[in-house]
Design a protein that fits this description.
single chain, rod-shaped
Amino acid sequence: MFAHLLFSWINCTKSFLLFSGYVANTNSFPKPLTKEEEEYYLGS
């Protein structure tokens, strides 16, 4: 029982750390497109 709780806690912690590391990285999200790029890619 204790081992099951321990492994569940470790798994949740690992998932949280991976996610928070991804979001905390300043290069995680690309820069927004310019108006010209938007029109080019949307074909408007």
